[in-house]
């Protein structure tokens, strides 16, 4: 589903964000991306969205080199990638329903699709009864669930999550993780960047660790710390 | 497609309403500048029309001294008749000129005139308008001749005045059109800024670039359109009520042409303003 071939990225100010990364992520995998701040996790996700271009190497998604996509095709690439962020990024003046519906409307889905898909996805994230509320009337965990619903309503092949539990308490983090797992079980590839040690340790999923732009670990059923688990 | 039109329509009008003060400022600036452009164009057409008309009947008038003797008058008459560049001449007696003066001059001035003060005159039509000058130079110094006048010169002077007026109008219009473009650019920039969250979400979920851009382009387009609509109203009013219309006998096709130019320029300004704003501030 995702393949990095010797990908390097250096920013203009000289910061080396990623160094010679090669990896494969299969369809339906759940991958944690761990590492200290500035280790290149966010760059990794931005490259997948083609918000950045690698300086070297190439990135394939669903078998296609995304670096070769013409600019006008990039939006269509992004329709296959859902995104969730630490700060939710909901539209404050739109209700829960409208926030999720917006994601479908702006890619030109007809009203009938919107009206059938949005309640379904709100049911999935357990917010059917709050569909008319505004984001500020919800708790942080609920807001993040709206964000997940928005990211998933178009049934993308890949879901990227950049520290989705970073602003949440443990109980809410749990519910978001449960949700991401559920989405993963539908066959969606999930890549999640996180600092949350306890979470990673408990989930026992594939862990990719970055340190100053270098991949220092790629471990199936990994944990957050480096000295535990089985190294490939 | 229908979804899209509904969306673009909704977005465009909510943007216009949200920034209504700026929108009004932009529309009015477009309107004022385009009114100037339209007036300048009408003026130019009037001037062209007028000089064409006057030149057709260009006459050169040889005014005799009121005291000129009949031999002097007859001398001028036979010279004029023999001049090949003069097509025809009509002699106006002092009484005839007096009658004409009574019609042309306001009563306060004509009341002091008497028939004896009036010069008699030869009204001549030259074969081509520019020959009026030859007649002028030939007869100005003849005995008994008071003055030779040709309207050619007045036409030239009027044309020059109109040209200067036109340049002033167009220069003003150019400055105003520039500021109208900047104002439209700024309203669009504000609209984009107000919607930056929406725009970032749209990019994230894969809305196409044109989907994101079009509401802003239509916004600028509509501002230009409204501005030129107001300007068309002003130009039409000028054409209808200002006597230029009757005096110069401009027909409605001139008005229609002018209004078409006004419309096109207005729409162009709106589109250019929003296109620049989008290129600079909407990073898609």
How far the N terminus sits from the C terminus of chain A, by CA atoms, comes to 20 Å
Strand order of the largest sheet of chain A: 6-7-8-3-9-10
| Helix count, DSSP H or I runs of 4 or more residues of chain A | 7
Regarding quaternary structure, what we see is: heterodimer
Q: Give, in order, the helices and strands of chain A.
A: EEEHEEHEHHHEHEHEE
Q: What is the name of the CATH topology of the largest domain in chain A? A: Rossmann fold
Largest interface (CB within 8 Å) is between: A-B, 25 and 19 residues
Low-confidence segments of chain A, given as residue ranges, are none
Shape of chain B: rod-shaped
The tally of strands of chain B reads: 4
Fraction in beta strands of chain A: 25-35%
Name the helicity range of chain A.
Answer: 25-40%
| Mass-distribution shape of chain A | globular
| Distance separating the two termini of chain B | 21 Å
| Rg estimate of chain B, integer Å | 30 Å
Secondary-structure content class of chain A: alpha/beta
Number of domains of chain A: 2
Highlighted features:
heterodimer; A: 232 residues; alpha/beta; Rossmann fold; 2 domains; 6-stranded mixed sheet; 4-stranded antiparallel sheet; globular; B: 284 residues; alpha+beta; Alpha-Beta Plaits; 4 strands; rod-shaped
Provide a quick synopsis of the model.
Chain A has 232 residues and is an alpha/beta fold.
Describe this structure in words.
In chain A, helix 3 crosses helix 4. Helix content of chain A is 31%, strand content 25%. The two termini of chain A are 20 Å apart. Chain A has 2 domains: 147 residues, P-loop containing nucleotide triphosphate hydrolases (Rossmann fold, 3-Layer(aba) Sandwich); 66 residues, no CATH class. In chain A, strands 6-7-8-3-9-10 form a 6-stranded mixed sheet, with helices on both faces. Chain A has a 4-stranded antiparallel sheet with strand order 2-1-4-5, with helices on one face. In chain A, a hairpin with a 2-residue loop joins strand 4 and strand 5. By secondary structure, chain A is an alpha/beta fold. Chain A has 7 helices and 10 strands. Chain B folds into 2 domains: 178 residues, no CATH class; 91 residues, Alpha-Beta Plaits (2-Layer Sandwich), CATH 3.30.70.3040. Chain B has 284 residues and is an alpha+beta fold. Chain B is rod-shaped and about 100 Å long. Chain B is built from 11 helices and 4 strands; from the N terminus they run H-H-E-H-E-H-H-E-H-E-H-H-H-H-H. A 4-stranded antiparallel sheet of chain B has the order 2-3-1-4. In chain B, helix 1 crosses helix 9 and helix 2 packs antiparallel against helix 7. At the A-B interface, helix 2 and helix 3 of A face helix 1, helix 8 and helix 9 of B.
């Amino acid at each position: 589903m995702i393949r990095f071939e010797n990908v390097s990225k250096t920013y203009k100010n000289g910061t080396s964000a990623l160094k010679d990364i090669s990896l494969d992520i299969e369809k339906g995998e759940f991958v944690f991306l761990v590492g200290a701040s500035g280790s290149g996790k966010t760059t990794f996700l931005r490259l997948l969205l083609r918000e950045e271009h690698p300086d070297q190497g190439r990135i394939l998604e669903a078998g296609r080199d995304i670096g070769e996509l013409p600019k006008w095709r990039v939006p269509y690439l992004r329709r296959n990638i859902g995104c969730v962020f630490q700060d939710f990024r909901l539209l404050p003046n739109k209700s829960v329903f409208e926030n999720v519906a917006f994601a479908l409307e702006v890619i030109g889905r007809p009203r009938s699709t919107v009206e059938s898909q949005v309640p379904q996805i709100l049911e999935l994230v357990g917010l059917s009864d709050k569909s008319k509320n505004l984001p500020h009337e919800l708790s942080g965990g609920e807001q993040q669930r709206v964000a997940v619903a928005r990211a998933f309503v178009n049934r993308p092949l890949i879901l990227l999550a950049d520290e989705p539990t970073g602003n949440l308490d443990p109980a809410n983090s749990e519910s978001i993780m449960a949700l991401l797992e559920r989405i993963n079980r539908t066959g969606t590839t999930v890549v999640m960047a996180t600092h949350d040690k306890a979470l990673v340790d408990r989930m026992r999923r594939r862990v990719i660790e970055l340190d100053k732009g270098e991949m220092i670990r790629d471990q199936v059923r990994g944990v957050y710390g480096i000295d535990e688990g089985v190294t490939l | 497609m229908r979804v899209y039109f509904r969306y673009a329509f909704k977005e465009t009008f909510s943007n216009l309403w949200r920034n209504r003060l700026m929108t009004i400022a932009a529309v009015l600036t477009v309107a004022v500048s385009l009114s100037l452009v339209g007036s300048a164009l009408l003026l130019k057409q009037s001037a062209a029309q007028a000089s064409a008309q006057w030149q057709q009947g260009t006459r050169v008038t040889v005014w005799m001294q009121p005291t000129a003797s009949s031999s002097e008058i007859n001398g001028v008459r036979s010279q004029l008749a023999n001049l090949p560049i003069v097509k025809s001449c009509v002699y106006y007696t002092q009484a005839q000129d007096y009658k004409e003066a009574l019609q042309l001059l306001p009563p306060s001035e004509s009341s002091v005139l008497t028939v004896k003060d009036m010069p008699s005159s030869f009204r001549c039509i030259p074969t081509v308008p520019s020959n009026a000058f030859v007649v002028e130079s030939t007869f100005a110094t003849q005995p008994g001749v008071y003055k030779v006048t040709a309207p050619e010169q007045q036409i030239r002077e009027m044309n020059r005045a109109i040209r200067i007026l036109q340049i002033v109008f167009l220069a003003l219009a150019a400055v105003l059109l520039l500021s109208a473009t900047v104002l439209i650019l700024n309203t669009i920039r504000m609209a984009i800024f107000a919607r930056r969250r929406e725009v970032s979400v749209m990019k994230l979920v894969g809305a196409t670039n044109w989907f994101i851009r079009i509401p802003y382009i239509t916004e600028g387009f509509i501002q230009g359109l409204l501005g030129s609509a107001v300007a068309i109203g002003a130009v039409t009013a000028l054409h209808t009520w200002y006597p230029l219309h009757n005096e110069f006998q401009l027909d409605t096709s001139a008005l229609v042409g002018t209004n078409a130019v006004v419309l096109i320029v207005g729409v162009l300004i709106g589109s250019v303003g929003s296109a620049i704003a989008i290129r600079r501030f909407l990073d898609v």
